[in-house]
């Protein structure tokens, strides 16, 4: 390990990771570790689009103010202004790279591409590629990355932890291949683009969500994690207990979809003047309340009044997916429920993606930039991925190359291969973890429920520690990481004695006059709670 494998190691192949790889490879050698199949990442499943002030009828200041309002007093205004201001140039970069955004073909269009409107936005500012924007981005950027001579891709590894030198700096990462062989990838600079923590919950909007593994990797090197308690639940995920997760885009409501209760009546206009276009926290809580007092287990999202032609034009992917499940959404309303969707908290970073650990960066959903505050406004997530990945690449270009020191591996010397009974046990423990988080740490919370969650998570850790499973296994390490993040999430929720944005407490239904982002490290877990 006397020389680095590459200048920059990027872990994660979604929009943030690919954007950074393409920008950084203009000057550096890049190793990009990404899943073998793109569908495992959240980016591909993004439907709605990217928010940016692009139309002459819109403005940067309007986008900034909408974001601050949605963030409910916890946004970092500097981060909001930085992100929104750099949005249009990030969109132009995508256009220049061939992303096939949907054109606006109407007479007298003020902007070349169709812009839709989503919850919390005061104007149409969401640029999209039909209703499959994430897929268009990933297909375009991954094709360019595959052709770039300075980007070396690895899709045969599952990364499990970071390497650290004697001064506390990050020097790369270690992981396993399909044969459970240990690999160490060293680098001058390491960037985490590993996604959020929706996988801590039972119901999510993506089939294979991450469970915050990258957040814990950084925390193990001492990086603070901020605002973990603010987990966004998308109001409208397809309700199908027998099928995989599938998001029904916010744009469906943006184009005029109505939410209906069990009796087939709209309920949002009576709760908020913005009705179905209220911010996600408001809509998700309203839907949850309707579900609690009905026997359906879901509410309805109705777009039949838009007409068959408009539905097929704006939502071809959703039409096709629902049809494959036996639903004709041009003739019947869509059954929907809230589902874990986006982590507003994560690894604390600056505007260049730098963490408090030397030579370690984080971009995308894994990072906390201060943009989202207590609630993410629709389609600001892909914007954040683009802006901060581009900013990080620029900062790395301007950074003086760090002096190379031998790394001290922070991971195990070996990793075990589990037997089928061990696999079954770990799957059962992970299911139990998700049930605990879903029951006690989701849309509506209580002090008693959070205390119950703390107790049950501690018990789960003891069972993992004392069980027959070798924890030096891929599955054992990942479950331990998920447990640690779940405990930190609950700890952050316990300390927030108010209701704000995505965090609603029955014991503290009002907001506090003075509030601040939460900030925790692994050292904040009380003795005996660490898995």
Q: Which terms summarize this structure?
A:
alpha/beta; globular; 4-stranded mixed β-sheet; 531 residues; 8-stranded mixed β-sheet; Methane Monooxygenase Hydroxylase, Chain G, domain 1; 14 helices; Flavocytochrome C3, Chain A, domain 1
Structure notes:
The chain has 531 residues and is an alpha/beta fold. Among the domains are: 235-339, Flavocytochrome C3, Chain A, domain 1, CATH 3.90.700.10; 420-524, Fumarate reductase/succinate dehydrogenase flavoprotein-like, C-terminal domain (Methane Monooxygenase Hydroxylase, Chain G, domain 1, Up-down Bundle). The protein has helices at residues 15-24, 60-70, 77-85, 87-96, 133-147, 213-220, 251-254, 280-292, 308-314, 316-324, 380-398, 420-440, 447-466, 474-495, and strands spanning 6-11, 30-33, 50-51, 115-116, 126-127, 151-154, 158-165, 170-176, 182-192, 225-226, 231-238, 258-260, 299-302, 334-343, 346-348, 360-362, 367-368, 407-408, 444-445, 504-505, 519-520. Strands 1, 2, 6, 7, 8, 9, 16 and 18 form an 8-stranded mixed sheet that branches. Helix 12 packs parallel to helix 14. The two termini are 30 Å apart.
């Amino acid at each position: 390990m006397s020389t680095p494998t590459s200048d920059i190691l990027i872990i994660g192949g979604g929009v943030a990771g690919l954007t950074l790889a393409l920008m950084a490879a203009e000057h550096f050698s890049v190793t990009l570790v990404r899943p073998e199949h793109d569908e495992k990442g959240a980016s591909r499943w993004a439907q709605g689009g990217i928010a940016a002030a692009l139309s002459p009828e819109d403005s940067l200041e309007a986008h900034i103010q909408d974001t601050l309002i949605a963030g409910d007093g916890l946004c970092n205004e500097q981060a909001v202004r930085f992100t929104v201001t750099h949005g249009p140039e990030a969109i132009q970069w995508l256009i220049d790279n061939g992303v096939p955004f949907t054109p606006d073909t109407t007479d007298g269009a003020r902007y070349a591409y169709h812009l839709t409107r989503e919850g919390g936005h005061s104007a149409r500012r969401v640029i999209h590629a039909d209703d499959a924007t994430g897929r268009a981005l990933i297909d375009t950027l991954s094709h360019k990355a595959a052709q770039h001579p300075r980007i070396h891709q690895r899709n045969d590894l599952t990364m499990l932890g970071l390497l650290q030198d004697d001064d506390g700096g990050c020097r790369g990462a270690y992981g396993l291949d399909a044969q459970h062989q240990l690999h160490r990838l060293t680098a001058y600079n390491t960037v985490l683009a590993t996604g959020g923590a929706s996988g801590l919950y039972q119901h999510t909007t993506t089939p294979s969500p991450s469970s915050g593994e990258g957040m814990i990797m950084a925390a193990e090197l001492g990086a603070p994690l901020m605002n973990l308690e603010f987990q966004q639940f998308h109001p409208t995920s397809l309700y199908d207990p027998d099928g995989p997760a599938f998001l029904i885009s916010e744009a469906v409501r943006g184009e005029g979809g109505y939410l209906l209760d069990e009796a087939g009546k709209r309920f949002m206009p009576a709760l908020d003047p913005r009705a179905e276009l209220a911010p996600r926290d408001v809509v998700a809580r309203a839907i949850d309340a309707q579900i609690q007092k009905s026997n359906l287990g879901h509410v309805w999202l109705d777009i039949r009044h838009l007409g068959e032609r408009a539905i097929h034009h704006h939502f071809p992917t959703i039409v096709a997916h629902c049809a494959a499940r036996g639903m004709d959404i041009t003739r019947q309303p869509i059954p929907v429920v809230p589902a874990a969707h986006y982590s507003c908290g994560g690894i604390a970073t600056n505007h260049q993606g730098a963490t408090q650990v030397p030579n370690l960066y984080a971009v995308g959903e894994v990072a906390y930039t201060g943009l989202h505050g207590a609630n993410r406004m629709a389609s600001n997530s892909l914007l954040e991925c683009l802006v901060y990945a581009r900013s990080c690449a620029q900062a790395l270009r301007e950074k003086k190359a760090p002096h190379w020191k031998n790394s001290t591996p922070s991971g195990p010397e070996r990793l075990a291969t589990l037997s089928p009974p061990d696999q079954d046990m770990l799957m059962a423990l992970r299911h139990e973890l998700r049930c605990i988080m879903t029951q006690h740490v989701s849309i509506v919370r209580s002090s008693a429920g959070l205390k119950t969650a703390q107790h049950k998570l501690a018990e789960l850790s003891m069972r993992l520690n004392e069980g027959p499973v070798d924890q030096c296994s891929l599955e054992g390490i990942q479950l331990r990481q998920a447990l640690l993040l779940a405990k930190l999430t609950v700890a952050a929720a316990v300390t927030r004695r108010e209701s704000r944005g995505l965090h609603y407490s029955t014991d503290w239904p009002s907001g506090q006059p003075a509030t601040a982002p939460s900030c925790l490290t692994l050292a904040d877990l009380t003795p005996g709670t660490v898995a």
